[in-house]
What does this fold into?
Amino acid sequence: MTSRQECTLKAIVASFPPPNEGFEGPSSMPDPVLVHQAASWGSLGHPVLCHRPCVYLLKGSACRQGVSCQFCHHSQHSPIPKLDQEQRARVQGLSEGDLVSLLIPHIREQAEAAGLLEQVGDFICMLDKKFSADREHKNDNIRMKIPRKELYRLKKNFGSQLQGSGLSCELENSLADACHDLGEIAAQPAVMVGRGGCLASVVLGASLFGTGADDSHCAMQLAPGSSRRGQDEKFGFYFPVYTQLPGTLRVLQSVRRFYPDSPIYVFQDGGKYDFGPLCRAKPYNCIFARGREENSRWNPHSWMARFRNATKVLGTEYVIYLEPDVIVRKHHVLEPTHDAGGMYDDYNPSTHKETLEYLGRMGRERDPNFNVSWPHFGLAGGSYFKAEAILDAFDPKWLRRIDWEGMKGREGDKVMSSDFAMLVALSARGWTVYPWEESSQYPGPQSTAWERRKSFNADAAFEHNHKEHYHDMLPEFERRLITTFADMPQVCDGCGSCHGCVWYVDADPSRPLPIPSRQPPVP
It folds into this structure.
């Protein structure tokens, strides 16, 4: 969606009347708490069709997303019953078709209650067609899996949960696929499926809320399933991987333990292992992508392009960068206070004065008061980044101006490493990097007191440099899911270990130079 389309869409959303406007009775008065709060995308259809409440407003603060917020900006929300442990186990044993078969009657009921049955009828028919070709067989299948009494309780809970609660990502993506099919068949101007409610998340065409076919240029088209998950949490995770299996698995498991709903983007940098089936499995539920072998962690142009793309897909306010040697102890408590932050790596050499002055001059083009705050780097696994800073600083139009080869003469080979290169790119655009208390460096079991200085924090949520589990055995379930790619294109000899050999013309990933090559001239 172009910026012009996005602006037009926001203007249309802002013009929508409050959900109760036009209805008679005491409920027709607008919510007094939100008189001055702009309408949001997630508020549409309140109280039946809206998403879950915006956490910023629940805390009494203002939501910076405004009309584009994916969550509801109205205060009146009924409590939503949750499935108990036994019911969750029952549901997990059902196929997608069985589960949707249980939901269809409740979707129809909620649509009728909202007075939208006619508009949503096509969507319900598509669900019937997609999942319930043999309804009698499916009902028999469900009855075989779930006792009648338990099935009644489950259906009752589903009926309540459709009003604003979230469903599993797998089911959500299935509903999204059905919407996509319907959009192709009916040529609807807009189809959006987001996380929140089931029917709440389904907005079939702008006509559902009163806009006509002429507004089709403002439509928010259905994104792929991976990017749809990106708007749910404040923090997303970027995890580039290669050949380390046990470490990768442990990191994914620990992130899912403490961040069960946050999107994770796993990127294979040309390695042989396919993590796609693992990411599609329920315990992991992550986004997987694959690129050619470029040893990105030691090649700034490649690294920035891939990190920036992952940030776009995640769509979160912050991105936490992961490595296989990171452990996650807990959900972080201390919120980020700068644009990026990692370990307190005062054990690393300080950046040369000439380099700091060079970055300061460039950074002051965006922020006249900017100075480099941290003379080291420390942006290893467990670091956070503001998405806004990544999208700006890693943009090719700014990266192309950075003289990596010139800095290498002063700083050495570390200039090409990702943790130093990201400090350079961010500072060159005036974004502040400073250590985060929730990021720590494990000094090792035999470390001395001198080594256990500020870089080590036993209370940090993320701790880097844990390689002791790199040779652990993989559980049977995961071992069956992690496969190898049948095709392994050979880009060049030594691509997996070269430093500063992968470059793009004007830092543009669509214009790669042959590998190996030297940095093109800096404008």
Q: What stands out?
A: The domain at 232-507 is CATH 3.90.550.10 (Spore Coat Polysaccharide Biosynthesis Protein SpsA; Chain A). Residues 170 and 282 are 8 Å apart (CA to CA). The chain has three domains: 3-68, 85-221, 232-507.
